[in-house]
Design goal:
With 487 residues, the chain is of the alpha/beta class. Helices cover 24% and strands 28% of the residues. The chain has helices spanning 5-12, 38-41, 81-92, 112-125, 140-144, 146-153, 162-168, 193-203, 327-335, 370-380, 407-422, 459-469; strands at 22-24, 35-37, 61-66, 76-80, 102-105, 128-131, 157-160, 183-186, 206-213, 218-222, 236-237, 242-248, 254-257, 264-269, 293-301, 307-312, 317-319, 322-324, 339-349, 353-362, 391-393, 430-440, 444-453, 476-481. The strands form 7 sheets. Strands 6-5-7-8-9-10-11 form a 7-stranded mixed beta sheet.
C-alpha cells in the first residue's frame, strides 16, 4: 500500500506471456485473474517442507536481480540457490545476530542487501525482521519515527547506506531508549570518515562498514565487530571468500597482482559469486582470471589485509590527464557543518577535458552559500587540480532506489549547463535552444541540441556554428534543427 508497486505490476503483467501467477502481499486475490493473496493462501501450505516435493539443485536459478549501478543502465544478474544459501551462512560468520533477536529492513527487497542481509540471513538463524513499510527508508514517516521503532521492537541492528545515516543525523533521539542497538551495517557507497564519527556520537552504536555487490550475492568484506575497525575502509574479506586487487589492462585482462597499498581493480572469487549476466554481451571483459570477477571498483589492500575503496573507474574525474578521485573532494564537504549529502563529478571543459564540480544538499537551516562552500574547499583541499570549479546547491540529490547518489544525473546536468551556456553565442541565429542529456549505449552520454532557427538563421549556418562552438568538447551531441512553427 502506498508504494505504487501493485499499479506497476498491473500495467506490465499482460506483456509477460509466460507469467502464470502473481502472489499479492497485503492485498486481496483474484484467482480468475491468476492473482493469489498471500495472507489468504499461506495457511494451505506446510511450513516445514515444500508441498511440491521439488528437489532443488545447487546450481538451479533462485532469483535474478538488477544491479543497482550508479554508472549506467542496470544489468540482470542471476543467482543460484547455492549462491544465496552460502551467502546467508557466510554473513553469519561475521555479523552477530542470535535466535529471537530483531533486525530492521529498510532497503528494498529487490536489492540483495534487503533480501539477503536483512532477509535470508536472519531467517536462517530464527531471528526476527521488521519491514520498515513497503518503501522502507524512502518513507518519510519511517525516518521521522526511526528511533521510536527501534525502542518498540528492541532492534539490535539495521542495514543502511550513507545517505540514510546522514538523514538520521537530523533526527533527534529524544527520550527513546535505543540501547538495544548494537551496530548498523553500512555499504553500497563509500562512507566519509566525518559522517562515520558524527553518527556514532549521535547514536552511541557501532557502524560496521562493509562492501558488496549484486554480482557477489551481497557481502564481500566488512570491518570486524570486535577486532580493529579501520574508519573509512571496507574491512576484511569474508571467510570462504577471496578478494584481491589486480592490475588489469584496458581490455580488463589480468596483468599482475597489485602491491600492498597499490590502487587497482577490486576483484572477487568464491561460492557466492554469480556465473555471469543474463545478457552474454555484458560478460565481455568482466573475468580478468578464471572465476575472478572484476567489480569495476578501484581500491587498495593495506598491509593488514583491509581493503579501501578509492572510487569507480568510471567516476574518476580526468582533468587534463590528471586523475582526480571524487572522494578527495567529498570527504572535505562532509566535514563542513550544514552539508547533508555531497557529490563531486566531472564537468566538460574545452581545455582540460573535465573539471571537478560539486553538488551538495544542505541540512535544514544550514544557511551556506555556494561561494562560502567553495572558499572552504579552496582552503582545505591541498591538490589545486581537485578544487571544484563551481559548487551547486540542490534541494534533493538524485538517488537510486536503494539510496545511492545517482551520479550520472549530476554529470548530465553539468553537461547540460555547459552546452546551454556555450550555445548562447548563437545569438540572433536561434529563436530558442534546448539541451537535454541522457545515457547512450555507444558514447556513454549524449547531448541532444534542439534548436529553432530565427527567421534570419539558416539551417546550414547553425550547423556550422554549433560545430565550431563545441569543437573542443568530448561529449557527443545530436543536433535537431526544427522547422515546425511550434516548439
Amino acid at each position: 500500500p502506498g508504494s505504487g508497486i501493485w499499479e506497476k505490476v498491473s500495467a506490465i503483467r499482460h506483456d509477460l506471456p509466460g507469467l502464470e501467477a502473481i502472489i499479492r502481499v497485503m492485498g486481496p486475490g483474484d484467482e480468475k485473474e491468476g492473482i493469489y493473496g498471500y495472507e489468504e493462501i499461506i495457511g494451505q501450505y506446510r511450513g516445514d517442507t515444500l508441498d511440491s516435493a521439488r528437489v532443488i539443485e545447487p546450481q538451479d536459478i533462485a532469483s535474478m536481480y538488477h544491479t543497482g549501478g550508479t554508472t549506467g543502465t542496470p544489468k540482470l544478474a542471476p543467482h543460484t540457490h547455492f549462491n544465496e544459501a552460502v551467502m546467508a551462512f557466510m554473513t553469519g560468520t561475521v555479523i552477530e545476530l542470535d535466535i529471537g533477536e530483531t533486525t530492521m529492513c529498510g532497503l528494498p527487497l529487490f536489492h540483495v542487501n534487503g533480501a539477503m542481509v536483512t532477509g535470508s540471513f536472519p531467517f536462517s538463524l530464527g531471528a526476527h525482521v521488521v519491514l520498515l513499510s513497503p518503501i522502507g527508508y524512502r518513507d518519510p514517516s519511517v525516518m521521522q519515527n526511526f528511533f521510536k521503532i527501534v525502542e518498540h521492537y528492541r532492534a539490535v541492528s539495521f542495514s543502511s547506506v550513507p545517505t540514510v545515516l546522514s538523514m538520521l543525523l537530523d533526527i533527534p533521539t529524544g527520550n527513546e531508549d535505543i540501547s538495544s542497538l548494537r551496530y548498523a551495517g553500512c555499504g553500497a557507497a563509500p562512507l566519509s570518515v566525518e559522517l562515520f564519527k558524527r553518527f556514532e556520537a549521535h547514536s552511541g552504536m557501532k557502524i560496521l562498514e562493509g562492501y558488496g555487490l549484486t554480482e557477489g550475492t551481497c557481502v564481500s568484506s566488512i570491518n570486524p565487530s570486535h577486532g580493529e575497525r579501520k574508519v573509512g575502509s571496507i574491512g576484511l574479506r569474508l571467510p570462504y571468500h577471496e578478494m584481491a586487487v589486480f592490475i588489469v589492462d584496458d581490455g580488463g585482462r589480468f596483468v599482475r597482482e597489485a602491491e600492498t597499498d597499490e590502487i587497482g581493480a577490486i576483484c572477487i572469487k568464491g561460492p557466492s559469486v554469480f556465473n555471469g549476466y543474463l545478457d552474454e554481451a555484458h560478460n565481455v571483459g568482466i573475468w580478468p582470471k578464471k572465476d575472478w570477477f572484476n567489480t569495476g571498483d578501484l581500491g587498495r589492500q593495506d598491509a593488514d589485509g583491509y581493503f579501501w575503496l578509492t572510487g569507480r573507474k568510471k567516476e574518476l574525474i580526468i582533468r587534463g590527464g590528471h586523475n582526480i578521485d571524487p572522494a578527495a573532494i567529498e570527504d572535505f564537504l562532509y566535514r563542513l557543518p550544514g552539508i547533508q549529502v555531497a557529490a563531486a563529478v566531472g564537468q566538460p571543459d574545452p581545455h582540460a577535458g573535465e573539471i571537478p564540480v560539486a553538488y551538495v544538499q544542505l541540512q535544514e537551516n544550514a544557511g551556506l552559500t555556494p561561494d562560502q562552500i567553495l572558499e572552504y574547499l579552496k582552503r582545505e583541499i591541498g591538490e589545486k587540480a581537485a578544487i571544484p570549479k563551481e559548487v551547486f546547491v540542490v534541494e534533493q540529490m538524485p538517488l537510486t532506489p536503494i539510496g545511492k547518489i545517482f551520479k550520472p544525473a549530476l554529470r548530465w546536468e553539468s553537461i547540460k549547463k555547459v552546452y546551454q551556456t556555450e550555445l548562447e553565442v548563437l545569438g540572433d541565429l536561434a529563436e530558442s535552444v534546448k539541451v537535454t542529456v541522457a545515457e547512450d549505449k555507444i558514447h556513454g552520454s549524449l547531448a541532444t541540441l534542439t534548436i529553432k532557427p530565427a527567421p534570419q538563421g539558416s539551417k546550414d549556418k547553425i550547423k556550422e556554428e554549433v560545430k565550431e562552438i563545441l569543437a573542443r568538447y568530448t561529449i557527443k551531441y545530436r543536433l535537431d534543427i526544427l522547422t515546425e512553427p511550434n516548439f
